[in-house]
Amino acid sequence: MKPAHLFAYPTTTIYLVLAASAQSRPFDSLLSSFHIFGDQSPLRKHNPLNQVMPHSSEEVSTGVILSDVIGKTQDIAIFSGLTRDIDPVADRLDDASKNATVLAPDNGVMRNLKRKPWEDPNDYEVFGKNAYDGGDGQDRAHKNLRRFVEAHIVPESPWQEGQKVKTLAGNEIWYESKEAKKVIQPGNVQVTSIADKVANGEIWIMGGILDPRQYVPATGQAWTSLAQEKDKHKNEFIQDKADERIWFITTEPKLGIGERAILLLTPSGNVLWDMISFLDSPTIEFINSKGGLKAIVISHPHFYTTHLEWAKNFNCPVYTSKEDEGWLNRKDHYGFRKFIEGPTETIVDGVTAIKCGGHFDGSLVLHWDKKLFIADTLYTVPSALYHKDRLPGTTSYSFMWSIPNMIPLPPPKIHAIWKALKPFDFEATYGGFTGQDVRRPDLKNQVLESMKIQVRGEGHVDAAIFQESLE
Questions:
Q1: Which fold is adopted by the domain 231-467?
Q2: d(Cα 86, Cα 131) in Å, to the nearest integer?
Q3: Residue 351 above 70 pLDDT?
Q4: Sequence-distant (≥ 6) Cβ neighbours of residue 29 within 8 angstroms
Q5: Which of 107-111, 163-167, 387-391, 401-405 comes out lowest in average pLDDT?
Q6: Cα Rg for the chain, rounded, in angstroms?
Q7: Domain parsing of the chain, residue ranges
Q8: 3-state secondary structure of 441
């Protein structure tokens, strides 16, 4: 930051002292500033800048650049401070010849992150609780922080609606207008206001963060509702040929990604595993004819969809993982949701939800009568369906953070899945989509073997998973 610029906005001096520097700060200083506007901070109580500054109008401040104004808006003080610790970002905001759109999560979003932007769970699993101690730890933290900040910097301004661009981190995004608000895609993150428009760009305040896992087809994001789809689809009910107590429910024509729900008719009450969006009267009548529902269990956020409508119609609880609570974006006015906080949860007698993590922090599988309902927590691959004369090294499952973007899980995450599954015996798995049913007596061993094949293929030869066995 150029010293002369301090006087362009005198009221920002405190922010500039705390958050701005032409050079990266030591990591301990970064930690301190991230918490500086926490609820217990003396600065929060006494800082005169706690009076909310008005957001700019459509008028562009000529002769002023992004580095002059990034620190003046209290609502984004945390994120704006972090931008000063990433030299390529700080340099860009300070370069009048390079335009950018800054997508700044507001302070509330930053405080409520499940983990700090310099933290990566994989680092803790590989390096332990002191993953960010010492020089190497600070290097890891800075690398993670750079990835987070650069994912929120668009090297375009003006940025046109629908124009797909890559952020400085390389993830492709665009925005749409909905009800007079800009919404960043993928991820459906709303822009709550425009903080500033200056000579080399704009600062947009966001009510969320961007997640590089998200996938949207080339045709773009599409939106609909149950009412709009009412006369376009129907649900089909197919009984499992191997077990008449199991029914698969799918929507035709395909709606969304085409997943299936699985109805389990257990002696202790019926359980619906996972969720499809489409719900109509014939579906309600069919399930009620089988005895209704005692509970719904959803494996991970990609399948949350219309779960509140299902729960209301069947007057039953919906179980999801506490770790994934942040992905829920609708209020549960009737109290149907139940969060699974421990490693397992008995849904009804004999039916157990198992928290494996991996694909999402709280990704679940469901165990019943030597059967494992796996959704995307373990992803069934085509070679799993072939049982005879299997060549050594033939895999049956993959373990993915992002399936459409083909980003695999690291060894510690895969190992954690095994440790969650190891106490349970199973001889069949049911995936999230039609045709992903695998049955054979040695299936548990096939899961472990698939884990070792993937970890070895990722280039790891000393990972802890190689020490695991069925015993």
A1: Metallo-beta-lactamase; Chain A (3.60.15)
A2: 20
A3: yes
A4: none
A5: 387-391
A6: 25
A7: 3-206, 231-467
A8: coil
How, if at all, do strands 400-402 and 269-273 pair? Answer: unpaired
CB 416 within 8 A of CB 227: no
Q: For 8-19, what is the HEC assignment?
A: CCHHHHHHHHHH
Q: What are the φ/ψ torsions at residue 255 (nearest 5 degrees)? A: -125, 125
Does the pLDDT at position 318 exceed 80?
yes
Say if residues 192 and 184 touch (Cβ distance below 8 Å).
no
pTM, full prediction: 0.69
Residue 436 Cα distances to 67, 303, 312, angstroms: 53, 17, 30
CATH for the 3-206 domain, from 3.40.50.300, 1.20.1250.20, 2.30.180.10, 2.60.40.4070: 2.30.180.10
Q: Which two tokens stand for residue 345?
A: 């949860």
Q: What residues form DSSP beta bridges with 344?
A: 354
Give the C-alpha distances (Å, rounded to integers) separating 454 from 376, 383, 431, 459: 16, 14, 19, 9
In order, the DSSP letters of 125-180 are HHH-TTTT-HHHHHHHHHHHHHHHHHTTEES-SS--TT--EE-TTS-EEEEEEETT
Is-contact 76 205, C-beta < 8 A? yes
Tokens representing 4 are: 């002369």
Handedness of CA 73, 77, 79, 85 (dihedral sign): positive
Roughly how many angstroms between the first and final C-alpha of the chain, as a whole number?
A: 61
Contact 457, 410 (CB under 8 A): no
